[in-house]
Amino acid sequence: MLHTTDFVMLSAVLFILGAMGVLLKKNAILLFMSVELMLNAANLALVAFAKQWNQMEGHLFVFFVIAVAAAEVAVGLALIVAIFHTKKSINVDELHQMEG
Amino acid sequence: MENYPSLVTLILFIPLIGFLLNLFVGPRLGERLSSILGTTAALLSFVIAVLLWAYLRGSGYEAVVVNPPFLDGWIQIGTANVSIPWQMRVDTLSVTMMLVVTGVGSLIHIYAAGYMHGDPRFSRFFTYLNLFLFFMLILVTGNNFLMMFVGWEGVGVCSFLLIGFWFDRPNGVGWKNSNAARKAMILNRVGDFGILTAVFLIFWTFGTLDYYRPGEIANVNAGAHGETSEHGEAAPAEGEHGEAAATDSHGETAAATEGEAAAEDGHGTTTSVVFTNNDHIPTEQLGVFGQAERMIQDHHQVDFGPFSLPIETVLVLITLFMLLGATGKSAQIPLFVWLPDAMAGPTPVSALIHAATMVTAGVYMMCRSNVFFYNAELTSFIVAIVGATTAVMAGFVALGQWDIKRVLAYSTVSQLGFMVAAVGVGAYGAAMFHLVTHAFFKALLFLGSGSVIHGMEHGHHHAAHRAHGHGHDDHGHDTHDAHGDEHGEEHHDDHDFDPQDMRNMGGLARRMPITFITYLIGTLALAGIFPFAGFWSKDEILADSWLKGLGAGSFLGSAGGYIVFALLIAAAAFTAFYMWRQIEMVFFGQPRTEAADHAPESVFSMTFPLMVLAFLSIFGGFLNTPSNVLGLENIFTAHNFTTWLEHSLVHVHAAEFQPGIALAALALAIGAIFAARSIYGKGKSSNVADHDPIADRVSGGATIFGLANARLYWDETYYRLFENPFNKASQFLANTLDWRFWHDYFHNTVIAKGFNGIAQLLSKPVDIGLIDGIVNGVGRLVRGISGGVRKVQTGYVRTYAISFMLGVVLVIVILILPALQR
After folding, report:
1. How far is the C-alpha of A54 from the C-alpha of A58, rounded, in Å?
2. Is the predicted pLDDT of residue B343 greater than 80, yes or no?
3. What is the mean pLDDT of residues A3-22?
């Protein structure tokens, strides 16, 4: 029987993987994917705690997160396409015109 | 009749109203109405003066002090105990002056209506004349020295305005006229300094400026003289001072004669007190003259703070300052030089202001202050010397003048010298007598000369037109169209012609018969020929000075009398000579110019005053005939005028006729006339254009004439002594001190350089260094900080992400740490 701690540990590993991806990758698509990974790590933690305390609020939050993430991906991919149209590149290190 | 004195207010207001009307509506009235307005004002004033004279005759010559309405209490400073009321004095002296001023003034107003015909500023002329009458009447009617000073300054202003009346004549003549006006003004300022100082001294010494207070008797001996016709010398008023004072309230009753006041007192009680002296009045309630006499009795010391002076010395000081004022207004040495130049004014002005009335103001003032002068022996001596010297000096200068009005001007100076000398020898009555007769014949002579000038101008105009073929013959000689305008044209045509130059005249006796006859009468009167007016008045002065020389107790008095006598005899001879020279050159012989050949007789409004004044010049002397000559005392009351004046002048006395002196003076005058006739007469003055005949006829005549013609170099001397140094000094002050030192040096060196230094100090180290440093430093600091800080904003999204993450970690750590520590 899997214990709640295991789920949380997995969630933490996934989150750290996503965070490392956001920090280390240059490709905007991969960046997005890492963000999704972090979101799903959080979802996993929420579901695990919901089961632990036998309460439905955790599930409810997960659905919210999935809906918001879907919307985010839609906007984010549209942005990436627009950036690619102008820059012919999706390397985020080249997008530093806003520097001070 | 007892209300008559209050009319004296009207005598002031009528010329004032005439002045205001002419000032505001005169230019729209036209010549006729404007002149009628001005002349009516003068005539009404004369009528009032006559009524006042009748009142004085009817009331026993008692002086009345009138408080006019609206002006009650003129200058009052209660805390400083200063009280100068606006009071008017009706006494024999002021009424004499009023009669002369308004009488001669009225005649001259009538004359001016003809003389000024066609002048573009006709109504303004009458405006000024009425203003002059107003101020002159203030001068003579005032009961205190400050009112006299107001009038004194007012007539000075009118004199200035009228001398410069033709300030806009072309070809530099206007400049000369306005310069003459300024000269008169400035020299009179010198005299005014003396008057003001005298007034201040009087106020300091006596605490009042009133001549006499209401209820005070001017001359306590006069009543007895008047009734008993005893005409000896009037002793100075020396009542028994210190006797009981009767009523205190009495001295304060204003606007009441002595008799009336006493009568008013008498209404309440049964006894009617009539005072015959001033012993009942405390000293501090007397006027200045009464106080002066008591102070002399008491040997009073006048306190001047750090020192005190005896009253006699103070009186000498006061009278010396008064004399300075009189030399200004009455044209004596050393301030007389303005009067000959004042002839730049229109001739009626010369007659009214600069011969008959205003210039006699100094004599009036000294006669009014006879108590002061009588008690200041040193001043009297100086006055006598000044007057006599002026008389003989001006008489000599008149010998060498070509200008018809200039001769008369110097003659006026000379005759004023006679009056001043008379004051100096204590003959105050004779001075006033000569003032009156001189007003008659000198006004006559000036008006006559105006008539001659008028005729010459018209004759010149006529001749010029005939020569140019303009054909004005049908208008004849009585063309009286605008001669004021013609002046401009004439001066453009030929400005060489001078209608006042006697060299251009000659033979006018036939052309202008009325002018000639009246002028001759005036000449004889001025020369002192029996029985014309001048004979009596001049003889009285000569007799008085001789008697003073004989009878004065002191050396100064005797010397003064003899010196005055000698100098005045010489001046009288000069007078006869220069007047006959003028008669010969103007009226006899052949006409020397076309203008003289065509000069017409003047209009009736001009000849009428001449005839009236000629009448007065013949008979004016009988006002004051002596008692012991030719049985005249059976026809005329002897010493009439002197007796009349005794009621207002304390130290007036009638001099007895001195047959020897009179005959000698008469012989000298007639001799001078014959000498003048032999030099200038019988056509010998026909070619005077080059030089005066006296140069040929008398050895040394050229020198004498040169000196006289150059007016004894008075003006040049004054130029060297005062004007030139003044100009030099002011140029030095302006160029060197003000411009070079003050502007160039002081301004540049001290002010400008100092300013520059401070400005540089403020700009370089302070402004540029400190203030700019602070401001720029702040800017640089901000820029530096922001330069460092903005590096944080890299633009790399991953940098933001990691800082975001580190921040989250930090927040979590901060949130969790307390829980861990627990």
Report:
1. 9
2. yes
3. 92
Alpha-helical runs (H) found in B494-603: 508-511, 513-527, 533-551, 555-587, 594-597
Place of tokens 């789920």: A7
pLDDT (tens digit per residue) in B243-264: 333 333 333 334 334 444 444 4
Asked if A93 and B791 come within 8 Å (Cβ–Cβ), the reply is: no
From CA B19, how far away is CA B41, in angstroms rounded? Answer: 9
- Determine, for residues B797 and A100 on separate chains, whether the beta-carbon distance falls below 8 Å: no
Q: Is A88 on the interface with B (CB under 8 A)?
A: no
- Inspect the interface and report whether the beta carbons of A96 and B802 lie closer than 8 Å: no
pTM score, whole prediction:
0.76
Nearest to A92 among B790, B793, B797 (CB): B797
Judge whether A87 is closer than 8 Å to chain B, CB to CB. no
Mean pLDDT of B399-425: 93
Q: For chains A and B, what is the number of CB pairs under 8 angstroms?
A: 31
Nearest residue in chain B measured CA to CA from A31: B798
Closest residue by Cα to residue B278 from B265, B300, B294, B263: B294
- A2 CA: distance to closest CA in chain B (Å): 27
Is A19 at the interface with chain B, CB within 8 A? Answer: yes
Mean pLDDT, chain B, whole residue set: 84
Instruction: List the structure tokens of A82.
Output: 């627009």
CB B607 within 8 A of CB B601: yes
Q: What's at B324, amino acid-wise?
A: L
Q: A92 vs B798: CB contact, 8 Å cut-off? A: yes
- pLDDT on residue B473: 42
- Residue B113 clears pLDDT 80, i.e. is over it: yes
Q: Residue B799's closest chain A neighbor by CA? A: A23
Angle at B343 (CA atoms; ends B342, B345), nearest 5 degrees: 85
Query: What are A43-78's pLDDT values in tens digits?
Result: 999 999 999 999 889 999 999 999 999 999 999 999
Contacts of A95 in chain B (CB under 8 A): 795, 797
Residues from chain B that touch A19, judged by Cβ atoms under 8 A, are 805
**Alpha-carbon dihedral of residues B277, B278, B280, B283, nearest 10 degrees?**
-160
- Give backbone dihedrals phi and psi of B488, rounded to 5 degrees, phi first: -60, -50
Q: Report the pLDDT value the prediction gives residue B90, as an integer from 0 to 100.
A: 92
**Distance to chain B for A1, nearest Cα, Å:** 30
A95 touches chain B (CB under 8 A): yes
Angstrom distances, CA of residue B616 to CA of B56, B519, B596, B613: 22, 13, 29, 5
- Segment A19-34, tens digit of pLDDT: 999 989 889 899 999 9
CA atoms within 13 A on the CB side of B607: 12
